[in-house]
């Protein structure tokens, strides 16, 4: 496997940071380019199921997460109009035994802080809003609104539902999203 690839991840949210950790586990370095000047996550709480918690524990982040997470005993899903229970999800000790990982609740900002520290700020380039992608025979050139240009072997878009990366890479595709 070629591990000296120059990989650019556009977006340093939860997905981009987690991807950078996963690539690093395989000896692949990635640089993250984030449009905001300061890492901050909007929103409230996130529930992390066993697939996520097993991965983060394998990355050696258990102690960091213990400081900001709470074990969730379970969730109840209700109809937004009637309030009727329409489902539930348990997170008790049986959950860990069955799925091999905990069920955690964490604030998005705390999750992003733990992940950005694990990735390392030297790999996160803030103030880089993508304005153009140019495909060449042997590389892709990313252009940012701050005037910087970066060459990469591979570009990965992790810049959210309204992804500018997707617009540059998949011009012909339309994506529906919302709640």
UniProtKB/TrEMBL annotation:
Keyword Ubl conjugation among record annotations: no
MF GO annotations: FAD binding; monooxygenase activity
Keyword hit for Protein transport: no
Domain (FAD-binding): residue spans on this chain: 6-168
Pfam families: FAD_binding_3 (PF01494)
Recorded superkingdom: Bacteria
Keyword vocabulary terms for this entry: Monooxygenase, Oxidoreductase
InterPro entries: FAD-bd, FAD-dep_Monooxygenase_BioMet, FAD/NAD-bd_sf
Protein name: Monooxygenase
